[in-house]
């Protein structure tokens, strides 16, 4: 198992760097300039913009900027005395030295900004993951046990709707109904438990968690339904019934145990989907998490913040996929990882 995990981690390294390179190229191809946003004041001269561009390292060729962000630059040119000339001061450490850089717009380390927003995003995505799996498993089991009935048809239609409906449209619709018309729930934002109490926190979480977990519910319910129906046709299930075992015991000990094993493989994909969906949901519900931070960074052309967010989310997704593989091996003793 140790050698398998080590191989997977080594395979993930070029994946992360490939993602960063593609993201950087897409950012360069997008229109706009971060210096234009920083020097929006009409009194700013072209010379001021040139000095600022040199201070931020944006006067270098694109490939050089990416290499500096990746491996660092021991000699950073900064105009210390204001004479327009580059003075040597400090170093730019780079990603490989554990530094995600500094935000152009907010003038703060990218790592600090991400860690600051991470708990709020984990609160949203973690809750959506738990709710999505719990309700999805329940719906899938019920649909399989009542195969061909009206309950089964209703759950199947609901799962198709959950996969097909865009999350942003569903979020806006729920806001219009429950927040604007009925005024039962707040329009957006978040509340920490320590600041507003448990009930106030739950009221702010109901709508975003519901929308974000809807897709997970649909995927898990369809998957577990198909797995249960397949397992029920196996020979060992017929043998268990032939021995006179109660239906409840057969379903819990044999059907569910074997049908739940492949569901573990969905964990990594579900985590990635939730992180991607959180970018939209946090914007719709004004949720102050990493997704909203990333959207604002793209709008502001904040290259270091965008790159740092992509790296951070990529690592979280890879950890989720690796956890799924490990969990699959733990649940199914028949799986053996070759060294």
Description:
- Helices cover 70% and strands 1% of the residues.
- It has helices spanning 2-29, 34-38, 46-55, 62-71, 110-145, 150-164, 167-181, 193-196, 198-231, 235-242, 247-259, 266-284, 290-299, 303-331; strands at residues 77-78, 87-88.
- The chain is built from 14 helices and two strands.
- The N and C termini lie close together (8 Å).
- The model is unreliable at 75-81 and 84-90 (pLDDT under 50).
- The chain has two domains: 36-99, no CATH class; 110-331, MetI-like fold (Orthogonal Bundle).
- Strands 1-2 form a two-stranded antiparallel sheet.
- The chain has 339 residues and is mainly α.
- A hairpin with an 8-residue loop joins strand 1 and strand 2 (87-88).
Which structural traits does this protein have?
2 domains; two-stranded antiparallel sheet; MetI-like fold; 339 residues; 70% helix
How many domain modules?
A: 2
The biggest sheet amounts to: 2 strands, antiparallel
Reported CATH architecture of the largest domain: Orthogonal Bundle
Taking the alpha carbons of the first and last residues, their distance comes to: 8 Å
> What is the H level of CATH, i.e. the homologous superfamily of the largest domain?
MetI-like
CATH topology of the largest domain: MetI-like fold
Question: What is the 3D form?
Answer: globular
Structural class of the secondary structure composition? mainly alpha
Q: Which band does the percent of strand residues land in?
A: under 5%
What is the H/E string?
HHHHEEHHHHHHHHHH
Number of helices: 14
Provide the CATH top-level class of the largest domain.
Mainly Alpha
Count of strand segments: 2
Question: Strand order, biggest sheet?
Answer: 1-2
What is the averaged pLDDT score?
A: 78
In helices, the fraction of residues equals 55-70%
Spans of at least 5 consecutive residues whose pLDDT stays below 50 are 75-81, 84-90
Radius of gyration based on Cα positions: 25 Å
């Amino acid at each position: 198992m140790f050698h398998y995990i080590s191989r997977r981690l080594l395979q993930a390294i070029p994946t992360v760097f490939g993602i960063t390179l593609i993201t950087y190229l897409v950012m360069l191809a997008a229109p706009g300039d971060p210096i234009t946003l920083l020097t929006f004041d009409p009194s700013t001269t072209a010379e001021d913009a040139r000095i600022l561009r040199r201070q931020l390292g944006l006067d270098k060729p694109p490939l050089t900027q990416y290499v500096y962000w990746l491996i660092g630059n021991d000699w950073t040119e900064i105009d210390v005395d204001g004479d327009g000339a580059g003075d040597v001061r400090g170093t730019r450490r780079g990603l490989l030295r554990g530094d995600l850089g500094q935000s152009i717009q907010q003038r703060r380390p990218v790592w600090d900004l991400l860690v600051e927003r991470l708990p709020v995003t984990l609160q949203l995505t973690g809750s959506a993951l738990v709710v999505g799996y719990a309700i999805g498993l329940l719906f899938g089991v019920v649909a399989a046990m009542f195969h061909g009935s009206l309950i089964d048809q209703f759950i199947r239609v609901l799962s198709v709707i959950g996969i097909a409906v865009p999350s942003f449209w569903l979020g806006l619709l729920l806001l219009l109904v429950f927040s604007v018309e009925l005024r039962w729930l707040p329009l957006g934002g978040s509340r920490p438990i320590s600041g507003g109490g448990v009930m106030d926190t739950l009221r702010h979480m109901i709508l975003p968690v519901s929308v974000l977990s809807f897709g997970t519910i649909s995927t898990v319910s369809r998957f577990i339904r198909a797995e249960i129906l397949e397992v029920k046709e196996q020979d060992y299930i017929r043998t268990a019934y032939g021995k006179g075992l109660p239906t409840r015991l057969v379903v819990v000990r044999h059907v569910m145990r074997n049908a739940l094993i492949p569901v573990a493989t969905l964990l990594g994909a579900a985590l990635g989907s939730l992180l991607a969906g959180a970018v939209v949901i946090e914007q719709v519900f004004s949720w102050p998490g990493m997704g909203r931070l990333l959207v604002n960074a793209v709008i502001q052309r904040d290259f270091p913040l965008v790159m740092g967010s992509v790296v951070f989310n990529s690592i979280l997704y890879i950890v989720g996929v690796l956890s799924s593989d490990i969990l699959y091996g733990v649940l199914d003793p028949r799986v053996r990882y070759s060294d």
